[in-house]
Write a structure and sequence with these properties.
It is built from 14 helices and 15 strands. The protein is an alpha+beta fold.
Length: 469
């Protein structure tokens, strides 16, 4: 190799000289993680082992390092190793003896990484053995003793990582170990500012407040590990309060930490967007709109083509008119007798707006249950139900109303198809259910028959607290 080529490798890209002692004439693949753990892996490169079991992977293009894998053609046999931009390393392996058969040349950190893998394998076996004793514990004292052994074992793992970090600052494995660290809540009693009242939320606040202390949001390599996705899942599902303002605040905070990176910012924004978009928590669609307006529409989703970006924008535009706290759009339709009716002309403490179709199996399951809940609970709460026929045969619609005895409902439909209800209420599947208050402000959405009473109860509790103030 020329001096110029050697300098190129040292600057950007990688060169991996791979040799298997027991595999020849076979494809081998260089793969990597991307945020998630196995089985999701991504192909980065490929090469063919020659008759001597040797293959070379090489590029001079800059890439993002992380935990990479060599995957054999059976798609089952693999080993993990650390790969960083500028690496020029040699790897020798025996497939039948992985991972203990691995040997590295010109990569001290991979030697240390494999030592950790060996420690982890031994640690996992011992912990599993101790865990198995719980099934045969005869009393509470036995159980406590076994759990103490498990705790002591965990402390050894943490000590291993801590010792490594102190001895090898600035290395990739140190960054990975730091990303795995979770806060240890100080023991003992903790008090509020008065010095007398015990702080019952101290452990939660401490753990949440220090959760990301050691995680480097400026290190893109951490996305090429199986760590980040699990940390985000724990943080947003167990630590962040499931309310709009809190989620928006946390999203801004984490995205600010990742500002200026490529993969870290991209994955963080994608993850939070995907999480709120698929959340069953009421109001998270408002966070989706917030993210689109403040990040996607401001050019920060740099990886998206214009066509992909427009899909996000269009979806946000469909949701924006009907987020919680907005006044519901005043639809004008005909009732079952053909008389014009507007939504806002219906006077009631609460209005349950139900978009459904007689051709929708889920609707035929849910509508009778809504009516049953109405008769048992909701009617006495001052609720009126407005059922909107989205589509379907007129006679079939009337037959369902008669069969299910939905006499107390106000039934509306749009025979001339002049109402923009689909876009105003994001009705592109059925059933879709909204709860409005006496001022026709949207107070609930993504509801079903079982969740409606709880939403009303929460609203009434807030109203009582407001009146007391």
């Amino acid at each position: 190799m020329t001096a110029m080529a050697q300098n190129a490798i040292a600057k950007d890209g990688y060169k991996i000289q791979l040799k298997f002692t027991d595999v020849t004439d076979s494809m081998v693949y260089l793969t990597h993680y991307y945020g998630k753990p196995l089985p999701t892996i991504y192909k980065a490169d490929s090469a063919k082992l020659d008759k001597n079991g040797v293959a070379t992977f090489q590029t001079t293009e800059k890439f993002t390092g992380g935990i990479y894998m060599m995957l054999l053609s059976d798609k089952k046999t693999y080993f993990e190793f650390l790969l960083d931009n500028g690496n020029d390393i040699g790897i020798t392996a025996t497939a039948s003896g992985l991972p203990s058969s691995l040997k590295f040349k010109n990569s001290p950190e991979n030697e240390r990484f494999q030592a950790y893998v060996s420690f982890l394998r031994d640690f996992g076996g011992k912990q599993q053995e101790i865990q198995g004793k719980l099934a045969t514990a005869k009393n509470a004292a036995d159980t406590a003793a076994i759990r103490k052994q498990l705790t002591e074992g965990s402390k050894k793992l943490l000590a291993y990582r801590s010792d490594y970090v102190s001895k090898n600052p600035g290395t990739m494995l140190t960054s990975i170990f730091n990303s795995l660290e979770v806060p240890v809540v100080p023991e003992g009693d903790h008090y509020l500012a008065d010095g007398k009242t015990k702080d019952s939320s101290f452990a939660y606040n401490y753990y949440k407040g220090h959760y990301w202390d050691k995680f480097d949001f400026q290190d893109d390599r951490l996305i090429y590990t199986p760590v980040f996705d699990a940390k985000m899942e724990e943080y947003f599902t167990k630590l962040v309060l499931p309310i709009i303002d809190s989620v928006e605040f946390e999203a801004d905070k984490l995205l600010a930490k990742a500002e200026g990176t490529k993969d870290m910012f991209k994955y963080t924004l994608w993850w939070i967007t995907h999480w709120v978009e698929n959340s069953k928590i009421m109001g998270m669609d408002e966070v989706f709109v917030y993210l689109v307006e403040n990040y996607y529409m401001k050019g920060k989703a740099f990886w998206l083509e214009n066509e992909q970006l427009q899909k996000y924008v269009e979806q946000a535009q469909k949701i924006a008119p009907n987020v919680l706290g907005n006044v519901a759009y005043d639809i004008k339709m005909k009732d079952i007798s053909g008389k014009d009716v507007t939504l806002h002309s219906i006077k009631s403490k609460y209005t349950l707006l139900v978009f459904w179709s007689p051709d929708c199996g889920h609707c035929l399951h849910e509508v009778p249950r809504i009516d049953s809940m109405y008769q048992k609970v909701l009617k006495d709460k001052g609720v009126k139900i407005v059922g909107v026929r989205v589509e379907g045969d007129e006679q079939k619609w009337k037959d369902v109303i008669k069969k299910e005895k939905l006499d107390d409902w106000i039934h509306l439909w749009d025979p001339e198809r002049t109402s923009p209800f689909r876009s105003k209420y994001n009705v592109y599947s059925t059933p879709v259910i909204y709860l409005l208050d006496d001022k026709k402000i949207i107070r609930g959405k993504k509801l079903d028959h079982s969740t409606i009473p709880q939403v009303i109860e929460n609203l009434e509790k807030k109203e009582k607290l407001t009146q007391k103030k």
